[in-house]
Amino acid sequence: MKKISNHYKDMTKVYIITQGSYSDYHICGVYSDLKTAKKIARLYLSDNDKYHNSSLVIEEYELDEYQDIPDNYSSYFIRMTRDGNVTEIRKKDLNYFRGYGFDINGFLHNTVIAKDEKHAIKIMNELRIDLIANNKWIK
Questions:
Q1: Fewer CB atoms < 10 Å away: N or C end of the chain?
Q2: What is d(CA 73, CA 53) in angstroms, rounded to the nearest whole number?
Q3: What is the per-residue pLDDT for 72?
Q4: Of the ranges 30-34, 64-68, 105-109, 135-139, which one carries the lowest mean pLDDT score?
Q5: Are 131 and 137 in contact (CB under 8 A)?
Q6: What per-residue confidence (pLDDT) applies to 122?
Q7: What are the start-end ranges of the E strands in 1-139?
Q8: pLDDT value at position 118?
Q9: Are 13 and 60 in contact (CB under 8 A)?
């Protein structure tokens, strides 16, 4: 059986500028390279409307990222505190992925592909540690 990490090779990245949250969350543009995405984001940010632009984010995704998911893996939605406590975990439909983010309480949330809940928590903890170590934790 193919290892889960092998299917990440030769992926094409896209950079998506998003803005807003909850029902106001929307895509402003999709770009094939980070340089262009940053250039366009700067154009959005040049507007003096600070409130409107405060949630502007460049999200990075891999095209066709989950095309080779092994049969024994599932998708899990997880919500986790900064100190690693899981506040929510549930199995999800494999067709829905959005990437990580932070909720109004400052909790990290993400959808991960894992063998079981224990494996999903391990993956989420690795993301949590990386975000804290790189000073990318929002709140």
A1: N
A2: 38
A3: 84
A4: 64-68
A5: yes
A6: 95
A7: 13-19, 26-31, 57-62, 74-80, 86-92, 101-102, 108-114
A8: 95
A9: yes
Q: Looking at the structure, do residues 86 and 44 belong to the same domain, yes or no?
A: no
pLDDT average, residue stretch 78-83: 94
Q: Are the C-beta atoms of residues 13 and 65 closer than 8 Å to each other?
A: no
Amino acid at site 59:
E
**Residue carrying the six token digits 């290892």:** 3
| Number of domains the chain contains | 2
Domain that holds residue 125: 74-133
Query: Quick check: helix, strand or coil at residue 63?
Result: coil
In which residue are the tokens 């998506």 written? 16
Alpha helices in the chain (DSSP H): 34-45, 50-53, 117-133
Q: Are 18 and 54 in contact (CB under 8 A)?
A: no
Quick one: tokens of 3?
């290892």
Residues 83 and 55 occupy one common structural domain: no
Structure tokens that stand for 15 in this block: 């950079």
